[in-house]
Write a structure and sequence with these properties.
The complex is a heteropentamer. By secondary structure, chain A is of the alpha/beta class. Chain A is 18% helix and 25% strand. Chain B has one domain: Orthogonal Bundle (Helix Hairpins), CATH 1.10.287. Chain B is built from three helices and no strands. Chain E has one domain: Cytochrome-c3 Hydrogenase, chain B, CATH 1.10.645. Chain E contains 15 helices and nine strands. In chain E, strand 2 and strand 3 form a beta hairpin. In chain E, helix 4 runs antiparallel to helix 11. Classes of the chains: A alpha/beta, B mainly alpha, C mainly alpha, D mainly alpha, E alpha+beta. Chains in contact: A-C, A-E, B-D, B-E, C-D, C-E, D-E.
Chain lengths: 184, 110, 428, 168, 368
């Protein structure tokens, strides 16, 4: 008999279902994920969790991605009963990222939000005890941010110190310099 | 060594030791501030009494010499019961008054 | 003078089973030499004590090796085999290591109590061996209230443990020592009750007398008193806080128990004291239940004390066996077990024994007839009691409760979303 | 009259050390040390019993006093953590000392003054069996009364220290 | 008037014999009862997610061994699957069968470790741990035979497996799976699961209700012990799991006892899978070669694997460059811990240790 494979709901289906209930909650919808308005995040999440259709009772995982201009907080929600999974993103300001916390909705989110706060600096309002999870309290800055290395006095990061192209060559094949037979 | 004088242990010597223990017990129970301290004094006094009982049963002429030891056993049993109740009292008082110093436990009603 | 000395040890050197009562023999020797009366007791006492302390010292060393090898064997691994031919020098290596280790003392611990504790813990353990009969007349102090002496010494251990826990001024240590004292006090009652049965049957509390009773009536007391043996073994394994009752130094819970602050030779003393206490309890069980140095016809051939030490190690193996296999009780389960199971069973045992001894006294039948009946009766009764008690009182535990269900596909019931409960506010 | 030199030496050594331990109970500053010295005194007194040829009573003394009462005292101290642990004295210290000295003087005078009817018998043989007889033949009523007393004391202690919440 | 005993703050860990690594639990206890639990993690934080952004996709594979160092194979597999999903690489049949076989072997090894450590926490001093470790050694020897390493195997590559299995691998595996391990599991079951004291110590200890399990996004044995039949190998089959027929054990009341029994049953099911894999192992290439500096198209992918600890997910975001732009790992151990306070508060301190042992966390995975 055919094994049930997890269905990944397309962002548009989620957006249309969500838009019907909470107009204005969805900023835009892509094939894989849906982007929510930060303001109506908590309401949208509560709706998605309690909606019999979406039934997102299982928060699979949450993390954050530093997109230089903004910081995306990514949630993967799933329904075990219906065996479907979908992705939700919330953009947050890059300098002082702040997003509503979903800890009151899922216990699983408590530790994961503390990790995102610790490594990316996203402040979650409404989290019962938002402290650093891994690093010690007086650690300067949040390591997973792309601009972390450019702290005053911070070293240059590993690979990025080598020039991407040899001098004077633009694109195309790399031409080795003429080594001149045995020149010192 | 002055063994001539002390060649033997007479009844009086043992009674003196008993009296010494008794007076120390009396002093401790009268002068200590802590309830448990007082109980220690009482226990010492009871021990002293036991020593004298056994001394008499060992030395003094009597139809049933073992009665002294029977009495000593009864004293030990009762002392244990008394210690248990007294300490239970001390703990109960501590629970209400947060202290076991007898100076501060003077109200008849709390 | 040397002639007199030789009379103590019979002509063939290996057969010292004729060594009559230690102090009696020495009294003849000293009185021949014209010494004052009281000197005899001092010399006899010292000699006996020296003998017992060397036995204890040697046993402590050997036991470390035996225990680690046997437990190793049970865990399908080798156990110490590096130092010495088959790891025999391992205990020596441990002892030397412990001796040269620096003895740390926490700053706030009060010195007097901190140093007194290990000594106070070891002395009662060794003192009990003075009462135990090693051979036909080889008892250092055959007190006529031997069993009460054993209780007295084991009750002293409670105070010593407290001193250790309180002295080292450490939260874990105090926690551990409180647990141990609760256990010791709880388990003293079943111990006293179970040995009461033995004293009643043997008619005397003198350990020599008990062994002679077993010799005269040609049986081991374990046959007459199986229930007492079971109760005594279990409660003494709790008294010695060995698995399954090693609550005190439950490593996985409060690391270390009452001897957590000790290091160097002080810890060595605690470690040795635990082994010595275990040997002492094995010695008591061997004497009271397994007939001490007497073994049917065997003790004519083999010297009595060899049989006795063999029995001590046999019982000691039982303790190692339980230590090797059983997991640990929780403190409340342990105490409930003592109050709800051991003490009532011990009471029933005492009543049984009283009835039987009364019948034996009143009817005046010969022991030869009555004792076999008692043996069968007691064993059957013990078995019935244990099974009935477990059936009635033990919580319902079938061997393999509710096997897990097996699903070939996922099946998740649609459950209501639950409001997450923040910690601390949960079911209080 | 005990005149065997060894026993006399033993008696005086034990007696003096017991009195010293008793004095330490009064003098030592920390309450827990006081309890430990008390336990030592109990063991010392047991030694005196043995010299007075009461071996069974000595064993019972060690068992009940040093074992049980000692532990009872330590539990009492542990159950009252906030109370001060100093072995301090009240204002009645001086009068207490005087009274104790007076009692000591009177008892020693009486001891040495009256001439006791010393019996010439030797020390008792093993006393355990005869004590058992004594308890069950002449003193059976007090024996039962004491057991009842112990029961009531136990129940009293439990009732005093039980809290409402405890499930007994 | 309750006895005023001031609560004591007890530190369990980080150097504690029973916390499976440097995990610190600060428990406030009142007598024996635990009144408050605070978890302190981060002692083993190596910030792998930052390092991964500096290395190419293939160079990141060794990180996955060192996260859950007791289940390296499933770590490698999870990561390779997510990159293959991102880059659209399909893996030859033989590699898929080998991957399934090795991840099931890794499950047996990890569950052996978990069961042994759990019984050790219950107090059976070292004996059952020795038995389970002896069985785990045999599995590790098989790993060493194929990829040279016992723990940090680094065996899987993007597009297949690093080496093909040597000739003497299959006979050895056949002996292990058919003759040796079933008897060992029988022995383990009788020695421990039927043991009265273990039953007393682990029944109704650390109970998780089904609703709380889903809400706290638990996974693996934790979820299945609460009575929810959810397993990624069944729900979202990867490799060749859809061709295997096996069953997932599910418990009743979510206590430590159920978790232990489930782990032992899962080991038996793993043996079943391995037997089927060995029977249907096809020939063919064990790897499709992928350029070393693989540049997957810009985009993101989340794929998940059923590791012994639970659902191990990899969320990889690529910007077209040789190194991943963002590399996030869903660590089942960390998420399974979020429900620890609810489970231990109100119980005795000894039960808290047993509960922690039954969750079977791996601090390398918690801290990453």
């Amino acid at each position: 008999m055919p094994h049930p494979a997890t269905v990944t709901l397309p962002g548009t289906a989620v957006a249309e279902r969500l838009g019907a209930a909470l107009p204005g909650a969805v900023r835009e919808a892509f094939a894989e994920h849906v982007v929510l308005e930060p303001a109506s995040l908590f309401a949208a999440m509560a709706f998605m969790r309690d909606d019999p259709e979406l039934d997102a009772k299982y928060l699979v995982q949450m993390c954050s991605v530093d997109m230089i201009t903004r910081i995306d907080v990514v949630y993967h929600l799933a329904s075990l009963a219906r065996n479907h999974i979908f992705e939700v993103k919330v953009p947050a300001d890059h300098e002082r990222p702040a997003v509503a916390s979903v800890a009151p909705l899922w216990i699983g989110a408590t530790l994961q939000e503390r990790e995102v706060y610790d490594l990316m600096g996203v402040a979650f309002e409404g989290h019962p005890e938002l402290t650093r999870l891994f690093l010690w309290d007086k650690f300067p800055g949040h390591p997973l941010r792309k601009d972390f290395m450019s702290l005053p006095g911070g070293q240059k990061s590993g690979l990025s110190q080598f020039p991407k192209q040899a001098p004077g060559q633009t694109g195309g094949e790399f031409r080795p310099r003429d080594a001149g037979a045995g020149a010192p | 060594m002055s063994s001539v004088v002390l060649a033997s242990v007479s009844l009086e010597n043992v009674l003196v030791i008993g009296a010494l223990l008794f007076s120390i017990g009396l002093y401790v129970s009268l002068s200590k501030r802590n309830a448990v301290g007082i109980l220690m004094g009482v226990e010492l006094m009871l021990n002293a009494v036991n020593v004298t009982f056994l001394a008499f049963s060992r030395y003094v002429e009597s139809p049933r010499p073992l009665d002294g030891q029977v009495f000593a056993m009864f004293v030990i049993a009762i002392a244990a019961a008394e210690a248990a109740v007294a300490l239970a009292l001390a703990v109960a008082v501590y629970r209400h008054r947060e202290t076991v110093n007898i100076d501060e436990i003077d109200l008849l009603r709390w | 003078m040397t002639g007199a000395l030789l009379t103590i040890i019979t002509d063939n050197w290996w057969d010292i089973r004729d060594l009559s009562n230690l102090s009696g023999a020495i009294r003849d020797l000293v009185s021949d030499a014209g010494g004052p009366g009281w000197l005899v007791y001092v010399v006899a006492g010292l000699l006996g004590a020296a003998g017992i302390v060397t036995f204890v010292g040697v046993t402590a060393i050997i036991n470390i090796w035996i225990e680690r090898r046997v437990v190793g064997r049970m865990q399908s691994r080798l156990g110490p085999n590096r130092p010495g031919p088959v790891g025999l020098l391992q205990p020596l290596a441990d002892a030397i290591k412990l001796m040269q280790k620096e003895v740390l003392q926490p700053k706030l611990a009060d010195a007097l109590v901190f140093t007194a504790a290990p000594i106070a813990f070891t002395v009662p353990g060794i003192a009990v061996l003075a009462v135990v009969p090693w051979g036909r007349n080889m008892t250092l102090a055959s007190l006529d209230a031997g069993i009460v002496f054993i209780f007295a010494m084991s009750s002293l251990a409670a105070l010593a443990v407290f001193i250790g826990g309180y002295g080292s001024n450490n939260k874990y240590a105090l926690f551990g020592s409180m647990r141990v004292i609760a256990m010791l006090v709880t388990y003293e009652i079943p111990i006293v009750m179970s040995l009461l049965g033995i004293a009643m049957f043997a008619g005397t509390m003198n350990l020599d007398g008990i062994v002679r009773f077993q010799e005269d009536h040609w049986l081991f007391l374990i046959m007459l008193q199986p229930l007492a043996f079971v109760i005594y073994f279990m409660s003494s394994s709790a008294e010695l806080n060995r698995t399954p009752a090693d609550l005190a130094e439950a490593e996985s819970e409060i690391a270390g128990g009452y001897h957590v602050e000790y290091s160097g030779m002080k810890f060595g003393l605690y470690y040795a004291a635990e082994l010595i206490n275990c040997v002492t309890v094995s010695a008591i069980i061997a004497t009271l239940f397994l007939g001490g140095w007497w073994a049917y016809k065997l003790d004519e051939i083999v010297p009595g004390w060899m049989i006795y030490i063999g029995k001590v190690y046999a019982v000691y193996f039982l303790f190692i066996w339980t230590r090797g296999t059983l997991p640990r009780f929780r403190i409340d389960q342990l105490l409930a077990f003592a109050w709800k199971w051991m003490t009532p069973m011990a009471l029933v045992n005492v009543l049984m024994v009283a009835a039987e001894v009364l019948i034996w006294e009143e009817t005046g039948w010969s022991a030869g007839v009555l004792l076999p009946i008692y043996v069968v009766l007691n064993n059957a009764l013990a078995l019935a009691l244990i099974v009935a008690w477990v059936r009635v009182f033990a919580p319902r535990f079938e061997r393999f409760p509710d096997r897990p269900r097996f699903y070939s596909t996922i099946d998740v019931p649609s459950l209501p979303a639950v409001a997450p409960v923040q910690p601390g506010t949960q079911s209080q | 009259m005990i005149d065997d030199a060894g026993v006399v030496v033993a008696f005086w050594v034990i007696a003096v050390s017991t009195v010293v331990c008793a004095l330490m109970v009064a003098a030592v500053r920390n309450l827990v040390h006081a309890v430990l010295f008390l336990a030592l005194t109990f063991v010392g007194v047991a030694g005196i019993y043995i010299v007075l040829a009461a071996d069974f009573v000595a064993l019972v003394q060690v068992l009940i006093y040093a074992g049980a009462v000692g532990v009872l005292m330590t539990f009492a101290i542990m159950l009252t953590p906030a109370a001060d642990r100093r072995n301090s004295e009240t204002i009645f210290q001086a009068p207490a000392a005087v009274l104790a000295g007076l009692v000591l003087a009177i008892v020693t005078f009486v001891a040495y003054d009256t001439e006791w009817r010393i019996s010439g018998r030797d020390a008792f043989p093993a006393t355990a069996a005869s004590l058992g007889e004594a308890f069950l033949k002449p003193y059976v009523v007090p024996f039962e009364v004491v057991s009842v007393l112990l029961m009531t004391a136990m129940i009293g202690a439990i009732v005093l220290t039980r809290e409402e919440g405890d499930d007994v | 008037m309750p006895i005023k005993s001031e609560p004591v703050e007890v530190n369990i860990g980080p150097q504690h014999p029973s916390t499976h690594g440097v995990f610190r639990m600060v428990a406030r206890i009142d007598g024996e009862r635990v009144t408050d639990v605070k978890m302190v993690v981060g002692y083993l934080h190596r910030s792998m997610e930052k390092l991964a952004e500096e290395r190419t996709y293939t160079q990141n594979i060794p990180f996955t061994d060192r996260m859950d160092y007791l289940a390296a194979m499933t770590g490698n597999l999870g990561y390779c699957l997510s990159v293959e999903k991102l880059a659209g690489i399909d893996v030859p049949e033989r590699a898929q069968y080998l991957r399934t076989m090795f991840s099931e072997l890794q499950r047996v090894a990890s569950h052996c470790m978990a069961t042994g450590a759990f019984i050790n926490d219950c107090g059976a001093w070292q004996t059952p741990v020795m038995y389970t470790f002896r069985d785990r050694e045999k599995v590790l020897d098989l790993f060493e035979m194929t990829c040279g390493a016992r723990i940090t195997t680094n065996y899987m590559r993007i597009g297949g497996v690093a080496f093909d299995i040597p000739d003497e691998f299959l006979p050895a595996l056949d002996w292990l799976v058919n003759d040796d391990l079933p008897a060992r599991f029988e022995e383990l079951e009788n020695l421990i699961v039927g043991n009265e004291i273990i039953l007393m110590r682990s029944r109704d200890v650390g109970v998780v209700t089904p609703e709380m399990a889903i809400n706290a996004s638990l996974s693996g044995p934790m979820l299945r012990s609460a009575g929810i039949a959810w397993d990624i190998r069944k729900a979202d089959p990867y490799c060749v799991y859809d061709r295997m027929n096996f069953e997932i054990p599910v418990g009743y009341n979510g206590d430590s006892y159920d978790r232990m029994v489930i782990r032992i049953e899962e080991m038996k099911q793993s043996l079943r899978i391995i037997r089927q894999c060995m029977a249907e192992l096809p020939d063919g290439p064990h790897k499709v070669d992928v350029p070393l500096a693989l540049r997957p198209p810009a985009g993101e992918a989340y794929s998940r694997v059923e590791s012994p600890k639970g659902e191990l997910g990899f969320y990889v975001v690529s910007d077209g460059g040789p190194a991943p732009y963002r590399w996030h790992v869903r660590a089942p151990s960390l998420i399974n811990l979020s429900v620890l306070p609810q489970m231990t508060i109100g119980q005795s301190i000894a039960d808290a240790i047993v509960t922690l042992g039954s969750i079977d966390i791996n601090v390398g995975e918690v801290d990453r």
